[in-house]
């Protein structure tokens, strides 16, 4: 008789407990079944199906073009590959801003059609109504403050946010608003480490940083950047663990050479 070891799923509750215990939360993005399987087996706590798919999967310059249907497609693919991690899905640009009813409908579609466990959206006080409405329907929400890539045209640049006193103060206030609205955690992107530390200390909910220093309760990176699938992207906050661009490129060159020379397939590789 084979004994199946029961895999204990990570939930929003697990994430909260990790903060209280002082255990760091590890989060990475995934956009497809194969990668999600690898990342989940690797022991990740949270998988974010990021709207960064717009950049790394579809080749767009910003996250703005990706649609709700496309996010659902990516999310459903990821969910099929995951046994343990908490799967959080970005609500894409235009699917929640300024209309809490539309925000709720978008979140419901993601949950129903992909089987994911939570949604994420960008912004502070201005999206409070949307967050509350989504949570009232029983859908967990992760917030996102600091550099909010969907607002890139407002900022005009991807530089560090909240260096000035006024913006830092608003970020602190917004983090409290998100907590009060019922978010189970919040991503802090590209803000000074000291500010991230203050926010993390002031909140009961966990913070997950990207370019926000070591004092956050967890960290997130885009998987394609972390394993070096993307070429020429080296922001200060990125630690690259592999250089797959070169390794895969090398394998392709070898394959091309073997095919051209007639050494692939060999006698062993045919029927």
Characterise the protein shown here.
With 271 residues, the chain is an alpha/beta fold. It has eleven helices and eight strands. The radius of gyration is 20 Å and the shape is globular. The mean pLDDT is 96.
Brief summary of the model shown:
By secondary structure, this protein is an alpha/beta fold. Helices cover 41% and strands 13% of the residues.
Count of discrete domains: 2
Category from helices, strands and their pairing: alpha/beta
SSE pattern? HEHEHHEHEHEHHEHEEHH
Number of strands: 8
Regions with pLDDT < 50 over 5+ consecutive residues? none
Instruction: Report the portion of residues in β strands.
Output: 5-15%
Can you give the helix content as a percent range? 40-55%
Corresponding CATH architecture of the largest domain: Alpha-Beta Barrel
Topology at a glance:
Elements: H1 12-21, E1 25-29, H2 33-41, E2 46-49, H3 53-56, H4 68-79, E3 86-90, H5 100-114, E4 118-120, H6 128-136, E5 141-146, H7 152-155, H8 165-181, E6 185-189, H9 193-202, E7 207-210, E8 218-221, H10 223-226, H11 244-261
Parallel strand pairs: 1-2, 1-8, 2-3, 3-4, 4-5, 5-6, 6-7, 7-8
Helix pairs in contact: 2-4, 4-5, 5-6, 8-9
List keywords for this structure.
271 residues, alpha/beta, TIM Barrel, 2 domains, 8-stranded parallel β-barrel, 11 helices, 8 strands, globular
């Amino acid at each position: 008789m084979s004994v199946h070891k029961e895999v204990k799923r990570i939930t929003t509750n697990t994430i909260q407990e990790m903060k209280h215990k002082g255990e760091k939360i590890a989060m990475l993005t995934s956009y497809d079944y194969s990668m999600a399987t690898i990342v989940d087996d690797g022991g990740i706590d949270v998988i974010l199906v990021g709207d960064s798919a717009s950049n790394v999967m579809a080749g767009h310059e910003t996250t703005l073009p990706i649609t709700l249907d496309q996010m659902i497609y990516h999310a459903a693919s990821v969910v099929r590959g995951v046994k343990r991690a908490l799967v959080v899905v970005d609500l894409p640009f235009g699917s929640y801003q300024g209309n809490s009813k539309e925000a709720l409908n978008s979140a419901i579609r993601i949950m129903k059609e992909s089987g994911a466990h939570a949604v994420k959206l960008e912004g502070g006080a201005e999206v409070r109504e949307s967050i509350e409405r989504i949570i009232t329907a029983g859908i967990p929400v992760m917030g996102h403050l600091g550099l909010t890539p969907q607002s890139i045209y407002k900022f005009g640049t991807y530089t560090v946010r909240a260096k000035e006193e006024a913006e830092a103060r608003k970020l602190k206030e917004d983090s409290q608003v998100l907590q009060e609205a019922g978010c189970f955690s919040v991503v802090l992107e590209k803000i000074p480490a000291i500010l991230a530390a203050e926010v993390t200390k002031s909140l009961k909910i966990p913070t997950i940083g990207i370019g926000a220093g070591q004092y956050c309760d967890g960290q997130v990176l885009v998987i394609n950047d972390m394993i070096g699938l993307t070429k020429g992207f080296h922001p200060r906050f990125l630690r690259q663990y592999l250089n797959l661009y070169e390794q895969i490129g090398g394998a392709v060159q070898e394959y091309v050479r073997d095919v051209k020379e007639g050494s692939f397939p060999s006698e062993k590789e045919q029927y």
